[in-house]
Each structure stands twice: as structure tokens, then as C-alpha cells.
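Notebook entry, structure prediction.
Reason for the run: the old model in the group folder had no record of what sequence produced it. Starting over properly, with the input documented here first.
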Amino acid sequence: MGFTAEISRTSVNNHLSSQCIPIIQFVRPLLERERRDLLEEMMSLPQNAVVRRINELVKRARSVKVHAYIIHYLRKQMPYMIGRSEKQRQLLDNLEREFVACSRRYNLPLGDFPNVNQYRKMLSEVKDISEFKKLDKNMVYEMDKVLTHDIPMLLQKASSKQNNHKESSFSSAFNFLSSR
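New structure, fully documented this time:
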């Protein structure tokens, strides 16, 4: 049995002329509302794509920030000279606890952290965690600036641009469909 995608919304429309059959006259307001809803939804599609892309960008940026802090935190837990492999094994065995400690120390939401088991598997292939580069705090500062200032400005521009476009497009599309 093959997979079939479900239709998220079914649109109902009136293809009859302006002379509706009296028995379905009570359905006309519903059909008009459906038509308006469909037009609004269609007009918002490009905007939704832009917002979705911006949200994906934010998600990826937050993920990069969390990964950088995890590596920084784990690297700081490593001893300078003796017992590195033993300490790395302990860190990997208790990675869930280390994630919580990292989250608290750097004020990061646990929801942004990767899957513990996948991360453990990835880190188990690393010979020595202490050989990772140091965290570039200027880079983290710039990333925070983008997340707190630039992205909201980008969302605001996309929203205002969409509202201006939506008003003109919606009225012309509705007028076109209403005249039919």
C-alpha cells in the first residue's frame, strides 16, 4: 500500500451563475466566506515561505551556537595533561547531565540541544576533545546580535512588505472573482 498525502484543506466554490437555485441559496454566504478564505490563504503563501525560511535560518543559527557552547564546555572539562581519555569517556557516558550543566552555565534552552545519543556517537569518533579550537566569543557575540537585532528587523520588513502587497493583490483578485 503506497503513501498518499492528505489534503490539508478542501475548498468549496460556487460555479453557478448569479441566478442560484433557490434550494442552495442558504449556502451562498458559506461559499462567499470560503472564497475569501481561499484568496487570503493563496495571498499569504509567498509570505509564509519567506517566514518559514527565516525561521529555518534562526533554528540553524541557534543550533550552531549550542554546538559551539557544547564543545567549549566539554573542552573545559578536560584535564590539561594526564587522564584525558578516561575523562572523555566519563563525559560521554554522562553526556545528558553535561548537556544540562552546559545549558545552565551558558543560559541556553535545552530544546535547542541535539539528540544526546547521536551527539555521543559523533563525539565517540573524536580522539581528543581537548584538541578542539577555543570558542571565539566575538563570533558568538555577532551571532547573538544577528538573532536579537537583524532577524527581527528582517521579519518586520517581510511582514510590512507582505501586508502592503496583500492588500492590493487581495482586493484586485477578489474584485476579479466577484465579477465572474
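Summary: The mean pLDDT is 76.
The old model has been moved to the deprecated folder.
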